Amino acid sequence: FNSLNHDMTLTEFKFIWYMEYSHRMWGRIVGLAYILPAAYFWRKGWLSRPMKGCVLALCGLVCFQGLLGWYMVKSGLEEKPDSYDIPRVSQYRLAAHLGSALVLYSASLWTALSLLLPRHKLPETHQLLRLRQFAHGTTALIFLTALSGAFVAGLDAGLVYNSFPKMGERWIPDDLLAFSPVLRNIFENPTTVQFDHRILGITSFTAVTALYLFSRKIPLPRRTRMAVTSLLAVACMQ
User: Fold this and answer.
1) What integer pLDDT is reported at residue 3 of this predicted model?
2) What's this model's pTM, rounded to 2 decimal places?
3) Do 133 and 76 fall into the same domain?
4) Residues 139 and 214 reside in one and the same domain
5) Of the candidates 115, 131, 155, which is a domain's last residue?
6) 107 and 122: one domain?
7) pLDDT digits (tens, 9 = 90+) for 188-214
8) Taking CA 196 as the corner, what is the angle to CA 106 and CA 149, rounded to the nearest 5 degrees?
9) The pLDDT value given to residue 122
10) Are 8 and 81 in a shared domain?
11) Domain extent at residue 82
12) Residue 205 CB contacts under 8 Å (≥ 6 apart), including other chains
């Protein structure tokens, strides 16, 4: 307010405050909705030994996610002397917070589906092994693309260029490697961050499409085929 937002009204401030407050409270509700039933099931003896390890790991992730959120917000509240830039949290901490949330969500969903749906026992053919490896590689690529999106958000890199497929008048912008050393550009140069996110997004979409086409050549259970088709549909929507 002192250095940038002189004209902000109390109503505008309340909007930001309630957005943050709602996010914190929702996070706490999610934590309680997981930890309290888990403790009850544990006390009743309803959890097998492997499931106890899984429950402890997920509980740890829930707590770690909250701690990481506090650590991220803290970076946006630190005074930066001689800086009149827009106040923002560290893009590194934002990416870590998002990445941790994705891991927590994926692990929770995987655990739930493993309990609810029996695993298909298919013959371990060469094609099936390749499909599984391809799916794991695509998962890693999508995860990396999402993390690069956090860097875009943290640096407001989406505001640098708003044309597609070119960035301005060029395919490769002039200031792509403006920072020194070169490695800094990947994480701190808004132009490079947006460029990387575009390339990763296109690559992820291509990988999902290729995964779908490859899966059509293999005899798969109906549930697996529906999953691959849904993945392609969501990739198109995204």
Assistant:
1) 72
2) 0.86
3) no
4) yes
5) 115
6) no
7) 999 999 999 999 999 999 999 999 999
8) 40
9) 79
10) yes
11) 1-115
12) 235, 236, 238
**Residues 24 and 65 sit within 8 Å (Cβ to Cβ):** no
- Convert the chain into a string of H (helix), E (strand) and C (coil): CCCCCCCCCHHHHHHHHHHHHHHHHHHHHHHHHHHHHHHHHHHHCCCCHHHHHHHHHHHHHHHHHHHHHHHHHHHHHCCCCCCCCCCCCCHHHHHHHHHHHHHHHHHHHHHHHHHHCCCCCCCCCHHHHHHHHHHHHHHHHHHHHHHHHHHHHHCCHHHCCCCCCCECCECCCHHHHCCCCCHHHHHHCHHHHHHHHHHHHHHHHHHHHHHHHHHCCCCCCHHHHHHHHHHHHHHHHC
Rounded Cα–Cα distance for residues 78 and 155 (Å): 16
Domain boundary among 46, 81, 115: 115
Q: Are residues 142 and 71 in the same domain?
A: no
In which residue are the tokens 């509980």 written?
59
Q: Which two tokens stand for residue 189?
A: 């140069």
